[in-house]
Write a structure and sequence with these properties.
Helix content is 28%, strand content 18%. With 179 residues, the chain is an alpha/beta fold. It has a single domain, classed as Uracil-DNA glycosylase-like domain (Uracil-DNA Glycosylase, subunit E), CATH 3.40.470. The strands form 2 sheets. Strands 3-2-6-7 form a 4-stranded parallel sheet. Helix 5 links the parallel strand 6 and strand 7 (139-143).
């Protein structure tokens, strides 16, 4: 079993959208980059929807997300699991990130999107109860996971759902295929 620890959020205080995963996978933890697995669709979707090329260095992609009002984080601060699958997370080991402090620093958040069902379930069970009504003005939306483990949903269907991250981001729509 491995004790996994999340990264700090990628964010700017003016962020309007927060994208939440559950916990970085093994490849991401090794490379210290969100969504580093080459088969994860997150960065290809960001490329297709926001026009942030996945080929540019990670730091530049992160800065471009921030400039478009998008923050990136995980629901869990730490957990224990043997590999990368959310289904392998030891429930009793889950520690959520401090969303009250995050929302204090990011008062413009109006949309939280969950990258898959585990991120949503963990947030609603472990984080939301401690936010005491602070979520009232924030729209919560579960999107299909971009993980390669979520192969049952066609890529085009996932991409269509993920287009919501462009609303209010001030970006131009760049509509092309995800490869």
């Amino acid at each position: 079993m491995i004790e996994a620890r999340s990264f700090p959020p990628i964010s700017d205080p003016s962020a309007r959208t927060l994208v939440l995963g559950s916990m970085p996978g093994k490849r991401s933890l090794e490379q210290e980059e969100y969504y580093a697995h080459p088969q994860n669709l997150f960065w290809p979707f960001v490329d297709a929807i926001l026009g942030i090329p996945r080929e540019v260095p990670y730091d530049e992609r992160c800065e471009a997300l921030k400039s478009r009002g998008i923050a990136l984080w995980d629901t869990l601060k730490s957990c224990t699991r043997p590999g990368s699958l959310d289904s392998d997370i030891v429930r009793s080991s889950m520690v959520p990130n401090d969303f009250a402090a995050f929302l204090d620093v990011h008062p413009a958040i109006e949309l939280i999107v969950f990258n898959g069902g585990t991120a949503e379930r963990v947030f609603m069970k472990l984080a939301a109860p401690g936010l005491q009504g602070r979520l009232g003005a924030i729209r919560l939306l579960r999107l299909p996971s971009t993980s390669p483990a979520n192969a049952s949903i066609p890529v085009d269907t996932k991409l269509s759902a993920w287009r919501v991250i462009s609303s209010g981001s001030g970006s131009s729509f760049r509509d092309h295929e995800v490869k």
